[in-house]
Amino acid sequence: MTDSDIDVALDFLEQRADEILDFARDLIRTPSPNPPGDERAVADVVAQRLESLGITDVTRLGVDETRPNLIARVPGTGPGLTLILSAHLDTKPAGDLDAWETDPWDPVVADGRLTGLGSGDMKAALAAMVYAAGALHHHSSFKGELVLVCTADEEAGSVFGSKWLAENGHLSADVAVIGEPSGITEEWESLHLVSRGAALFKVRVTGTQMHSSISDRIQGVNATVQMARLIDRMDRELKSYLTFDEHPLCPTGPTVNVGVMAEAGVFYGVYPGRAEFACDLRTLPGMTEESVRSDIERFLSAAMADQPDLRAELVWELMVPATEIEPDEPIVDALLAASHRVRGATPELNAFPGATDAPHFQLTAGIPCVAAFGPGMLPRAHSPNEWMESTGAHTAAQIYAAAAILYLKESE
Fold first, then answer.
1. Three-state SS string across 31-47, please?
2. Which side of the chain, N or C, has fewer Cβ within a 10 Å radius?
């Protein structure tokens, strides 16, 4: 293959720039908030568009019919490498609708922006990958195979999505690219080689439940007050208890978010005997579930030793490990070259601050995985009035198609 092969694919996408944007808007118009989690409608929209682009090898599969995943295959002219492009079908919930200036599911294009729930995270990337697959389908001279994997449940732990697919042998490729938004201060600024892990847990505080009118006469332990004090201490001190090796792409270390959810008490008149709060740690490569749990237990033991009436218990939820791909992987060069060709700029190599589907691709299925490279900006994701550049989906489709052609040429 030569540069002219890329030119053909880019021309195919250039002629469909408005169509790609309209498709991204169609995806936003199709709600898929998680929780509660139901990707059927948006999966239908994707499958129908793939068919209209001539891609008919599309498999719909999942452990629950309401949580479908899609796997679409675009074969080349002979044996060769296999590249996965992956995007998730779900979004976070819209949250406080009063905080939105427009309807979250009525995508608005104005002043160079596409505004709507999931625009950057990650329905524009999903639209881009569908059309990149379409470009390669109509550009038939490559060898190997492009596989589009559209996953359910990424926003709530991937149990019905990439985790299930990987554990049940449905994922196989030489490399994978996930289209999570890769901008922090500007779009497309980084190609993320690291997917930081996520450790999710709660801390349960036990006190004395009794009639609140006698708390000045009978000594008790107010679980809510104890929780507040523990949250404050954990916010100040927990990071110092965490054991980890410094990482050049993660200079700030792990991220500690204390009290992302909290609940306590029963009602007026009841002295609170129980309180509970949730925490979210973003971990580095090398941090294990065993080490993180041990570090948190050490912190709680120290806190209870300093305050004998504190009774705190760790309630572990789950941990998604961090992953990392080597910078000399051929797909990295292909993405960097494609970005320079399409945008005239080369992104820096960096770590994705959050967790992605990468661990299930890389650690379970054994597929080296670029954690995030896609349109949009992470600070706008999970926020009211989520928006991205209106040209983002078209740009992404060009980058993915060009990178796929550059990578798959290694099959020749």
1. CCECCCCCCHHHHHHHH
2. C
CA dist., res. 44 & res. 30, Å (int)? 10
pLDDT reported for residue 320 = 87
Radius of gyration of the chain from Cα atoms?
23
pLDDT band at 412; cut points 50, 70, 90: low
pTM score, whole prediction: 0.90
Look up residue 364 and give its DSSP letter: I
Region at 310 (left for phi over 0; alpha for psi -120 to 50; beta for the rest) = beta
Question: CA-to-CA distance for 125 and 94, rounded, in angstroms?
Answer: 19
β-pairing verdict for 69-75 and 145-151: antiparallel
Percent of the chain with pLDDT over 70: 99
- Which one of 3.40.630.10, 3.10.580.10, 3.40.50.1980, 3.40.640.10 gives the CATH number of domain 3-196+322-411? 3.40.630.10
What residues does each domain of the chain span? Answer: 3-196+322-411, 197-320
Model confidence band, residue 1 (pLDDT cutoffs 50, 70, 90)? very low
What are φ and ψ of residue 136, in 5° steps?
Answer: -70, -30
